[in-house]
């Protein structure tokens, strides 16, 4: 199944529940932006790629950016719109690989929350980093956050409990291949007192943090900050 179908047919419907408390998660993102000086300085415009239900878009808007929130999933963009009331956020239904569909003058581009690993190859990521570099003005910044999946998990370590309550249980199962991981999202949902299982899977890229930094440098960026928070690699780079 393609990543887009996986979200459309499975994950989007319970993504917000899976992510947990929106306000708390959103505040974590806002705090990281603030701590790293990601504040409006130029034309105050940001493009948030793979925006999902809005953890980064809402944070950036609260910090004073006008945000173009790009995602190929309408369900998640509708949830974002519902949260964005009164905030300067415009949603764009587009594939982030299709740069002309969202190309606009912006001082900041973000691609966060492990969206980068959803792309189909390292070459695609490299090509996009080059295009984002072209889109930004001198001094413009690119913020990435992703999981470094290069280290393999074995045996029972590959079963990751994500979230559970009285009505739903979400578990991820990981299958490792050279260059990518197949991620199975298993959802058990209680319907009329019975547990119903739904399973769907998609691929994630195994990209080392070092490789991502090399691609940024090769494109012309300077890596300003690298943080690891809850096993997520956060990189801020400047043109
Ligand atoms: C793991 S979620 C991250 C969402 C959000 N940034 C967060 O931190 O919660 C990945 C998001 O990227 C979107 N996505 C994945 N590949 C995409 C693509 N090629 N074009 C547009 N959106 C994409 C998915 O629909 C999903 O909303």
Describe the protein.
- The model has no long low-confidence stretch (mean pLDDT 97).
- It is globular, with a radius of gyration of 18 Å.
- It folds into two domains: 3-148 and 208-238, Vaccinia Virus protein VP39 (Rossmann fold, 3-Layer(aba) Sandwich); 155-205, N-terminal domain of TfIIb.
- Helix 2 (22-35) crosses helix 3 (55-62) and helix 5 crosses helix 6.
- The longest helix has 17 residues, at 3-19.
- By secondary structure, the chain is an alpha/beta fold.
- The protein has helices at 3-19, 22-35, 55-62, 74-83, 122-135, 209-219, and strands at residues 45-49, 66-71, 89-93, 108-111, 141-146, 159-164, 168-177, 180-191, 194-205, 222-229, 232-238.
- The strands form two sheets. Strands 3-2-1-4-5-11-10 form a seven-stranded mixed sheet, sandwiched between helices. It has a four-stranded antiparallel sheet with strand order 6-7-8-9, covered by helices on one side.
- The chain contains six helices and eleven strands.
- It binds S-adenosylmethionine.
| Mean pLDDT over the full residue set | 97
Spell out the CATH superfamily of the largest domain. Vaccinia Virus protein VP39
Name of the CATH architecture of the largest domain: 3-Layer(aba) Sandwich
Distance from first to last alpha carbon: 36 Å
Unreliable segments of 5+ consecutive residues: none
The number of helical elements comes to: 6
- Helix-strand category: alpha/beta
Helicity, in percent? 25-40%
Largest sheet, described in full? 7 strands, mixed
Q: Would you tell me which CATH topology of the largest domain applies?
A: Rossmann fold
Give the overall form. Answer: globular
Annotation, overall tally of beta strands: 11
CATH class of the largest domain: Alpha Beta
